[in-house]
Amino acid sequence: MKTLITLFILVQLSFCASLHIGMSANPSRINPILSTDTVSGEISQYIFNSLITYDENASIKLELAKSYRFLDDKTLLFTLRDDVFWSDGESFSAQDVIFTYETIISPTVFTPYAESFRHIEKVEAIDNLSVKITYKYPYFAALETWTIGILPYHILKNENSIMTTSFNQKPIGTGAFTLKEFSISNNFILNANKNYFLGSPKLERIVYHFVPDSATEFLMLKSGELDIGALTPLQVKRQLDEKFYERFNVYETMSHSYSYVGLNLDLPKFKDARVREALSLAIDRQELVDLLLFGDGVVCTGPFMPHTQSFNPDVKAPKRDIKTAKELLLQAGYSEKNPLKFELITNTGPRIYIAQILQRQLKDAGVHVSVRVMEWQAFLNTIIQPRRFEAIVMGWQMGLKPDAYSIWHSESSKIGGFNFVGYKNEEVDALIKKAERTINDDEFNAIYRRIFKLIKDDNPYLFLYIPKTLTAVKKSVSPIRPSIIGITHNIFEWDKK
User: Fold this and answer.
1) Half-sphere exposure at residue 104, Cβ-oriented, CA atoms within 13 angstroms
2) I want to staple 149 with a disulfide (CB 3.0 to 4.6 A). Which of 48, 87, 200, 361 is the partner?
């Protein structure tokens, strides 16, 4: 009977416009203020809306807000749309915005997104469809703060704990899609919201398939089980044939993310700047790009996105220098008889290969590295959040206009904060605070270029590389418009023939 039911569901899916996507990790919580991993964040964007968002040119566009204006340099007024409903039929209102703000800043809620809201003095509902935000001082990202998804007051007002509520697995949103069922290590199905305020999406559903590795995802693409999927440089260079290109378009864009080694700066061995510098000099970053990406990427020189005004072009990536690396380690008290040893932890997937190559490269400098690989959620929950690691391999998304506070300010070195390596630099702290109140773009960018250099010189991260994003999309899916903000920015418009 179970087999017949499964077959019936598959037959049903085949007769509607369903988009099939692979996901390499399980979502954690489908809640826009708690979604910190890529999969959870992507799914949350389809279920929830924000007051404003970005268009394909990375310019601000309205979403739940009908309009906005600055009353002065510290006061922002939003007028809300009057035609928005939550997926359970309740009306969206200013009360939802107030509730979202109060939830984010609550001391019982651990979310890194709270950092952007600490500049706010108060949020007031002028009426049912008007919200006034008063900032403590002129803040450079006053508008961008409100790209966060809005939560439903009527559903969550009586919840004792937003962190553990069942809502995080049964979300109610205003977005283009609704979640049918939350299921660990299984398919996630999003159904079109027929009452979406911008009109029902053309896709009737989005099916996320749990695919734990890139090889399986590639096989599912080739067999036609997936409509969109990530490709590795190896697959693009050597494994795609004419038959694949007859069915798929392949889009290549520069990623907004970088890979890095994070060092636990609370440990005595990594508090020593000579050790961090030695490790940096022992790494051949270009070899990583060549071996792992087949040249489809660039060496990362620091924390902010290349070609933006906050990027510092004068900072260059260190060239490998084993001799100097060994000298620095010797000065720090490490030798052949007493080598530097540490464990490098990462999650399952392509980062395994980064760790293995680094293990070999660092061995040339006399450093002994052991590698441990974990499932993503276990990695986050037992290693990253409690900060039980010596060194980690991870990645980070770079914003178009960076806010360094959440990763690089010492105040963010706390539970729920992104500064889990424990980085502390008084000059960087002061510059971040200064930039927050700088609304002149030229002055802001000059400050951030200085921050860029200071962080790179400190080596709290060993910045590795920025990959190119390679995405295959079936030709039956349209319209695809690659953008600086990604491939799926207009998924609401997509149809599948």
Assistant:
1) 26
2) 48
Mean pLDDT per 10-residue section of the chain, whose length is 497 residues: 44 66 85 87 94 90 97 97 97 98 94 89 97 95 95 95 92 95 81 94 93 88 94 90 95 90 97 98 97 93 91 94 98 96 93 96 98 91 92 90 91 86 97 92 94 98 94 96 87 93
The residue type at 127: D
Q: Are 82 and 67 in contact (CB under 8 A)?
A: no
* Rounded CA separation 172/189 (Å): 14
Token pair for 493: 């418009």
Which amino acid appears at position 145 of this protein? T
CATH of the domain spanning 257-468: 3.10.105.10
β strands within 305-457, DSSP E: 341-347, 368-374, 391-397
Can you tell me the distance from the alpha carbon of 4 to that of 1, in angstroms, rounded to the nearest whole number?
A: 5
* Amino acid identity for residue 490 in this structure: N
Q: Cα separations (Å) of 206 from 102, 229, 495?
A: 32, 13, 11
Classify domain 16-47+161-254+469-496 by CATH architecture: 3-Layer(aba) Sandwich (3.40)
71-108 burial, b at 16+ Cβ within 10 Å, e below that, comes to eeebebbbbbbeebebbeeeebbbbbbbbbbebbeeee
Residue-level length of the chain:
497
State the CB neighbour count (10 A cutoff) for residue 161. 8
The amino acid occupying position 172 is I
Closest CA to 190 of 475, 478, 488, 396: 488
Residue 104 CA to residue 335 CA, distance in Å, equals 49
Q: Is the peptide bond before 386 cis (omega within 30 degrees of 0)?
A: no
- At 382 the three-state DSSP class reads helix
| Cα-to-chain-centroid distance, residue 237 | 27
Q: Which of 456, 457, 458, 481 is nearest to 471 (CA)?
A: 481
Enumerate the domain spans of the chain: 16-47+161-254+469-496, 52-156, 257-468
Tokens at 353, concatenated:
């290969």
Neighbours of 442 (CB within 10 A): 9
Distance CA(263)–CA(269), nearest Å, equals 10
Element (H, E) at 353: helix 351-363
Element (H, E) at 461: strand 461-474
For residue 242, CA distances in Å to 69, 249, 251, 358, 476 come to: 53, 11, 16, 36, 17
